[in-house]
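name: query_chain
kind: protein
chains: 1
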Amino acid sequence: MKKVLFISFDVPYDGVGHAGGKTHNFYLKRVAQDENFEAFLISFCIPNDLPKLDCDKYGIGNKIFCIRPEKKYKLARGIMNISSKFNPWDKHAGIISGYYVKKIKEQLNSMKKEGYTPDVIVLEWTPIVLLADMIKEIFPQAKLVASEHDVTFLGYYRKYKYENGTYKKWLAKVRYNTMLKQELKAIETCDMVFPHNHKDANILLKHDVPKQKIHPIVPYYMDFTDVKWNGNSKNIVFFGAMGRPENYLSAIWFAKNVMPLLKDTGVVFQVIGGGPVEELKKLESDNIKVLGFVEDVSPYFADALCMVAPLVLGAGIKVKVIEGMSSGMPVLTNKLGIEGIYAEDGTEYFHCEEPEEYAERIKMLLDSHDVAEKMSEKSKQLIKSKFDMDSSAAQYIKILKEI
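structure:
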């Protein structure tokens, strides 16, 4: 039986709310269910996660560190996190705190002392991938697999281009250059890389990562193909975790730049997702509704005129776009939103960059329901054919067996 050790900075469990956690949970559980593997997880959680943890239920050995909120614990973590927070040349590119590094190192050394010898170590998310050298030093015989949820240096590059102030732009550029160097160095240390889409695989190829090391996988997504989209309302949906900058900044951009162009149409912009920031909530009006977390988005998808994803930041494939397209509702998004999905503009989605393009497409959908119906069927077919999670999981298992 092959021992597979997973290391992540955010604990997965059934029902976890964010896209990366869902993908981590999906593949971890598939490995644990295979009789050829013995899975173990090292990860971190917050107190609210504790009742939700389910590794024991699936027979997954685990060591989960809880991030306590009390002042004495925050102070101790703050001291360990000085470099990651304030040093733009931090060796881990400022993306993982000293506290996490210390706990992971201590746990690995403890397991080694007790005789644990993993055959394969899966590093989930770039912050953990950046620890490849340290992990390799502790377990030199283990094969390291980088699970790249996105190519993080691309996101850092976009943050650098997005900044306006001189100092902030300089700082963002330094962090981007540091991330580029450290991420590629860590991937070089790993024996295998699982990018979560083909677009990111191509980026790694362009940066001289050997083709034989790269095996793209399909990210986990909620499959809404059973939704009966009718588009009978004038509701426009935006969907995502609304405490994340790439989501709330994009929703704010749409509210401020596109909604004024639609003021006489009667459309309503519905922003769905937990943790909306105050800046977004202040924009609420008769035609802008910040709904927060909803238990089931299916009714909103079924009834919506369309979904918009005018993303201004981010990297990696956008699961929200896959989920929207799977429901059959027309999706309007830009270059950032569609990357990695390879859909055809006008057939499987609508490509929009400028406010006027979004407004024009939305007005067209209000007047031409037959166009939307054709797109609905095409988008569902695309997601079904190109994003088969079961086939991807089978290939993932096969690679771990053969590595």
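note: The first strand starts at residue 2 and ends at 7.
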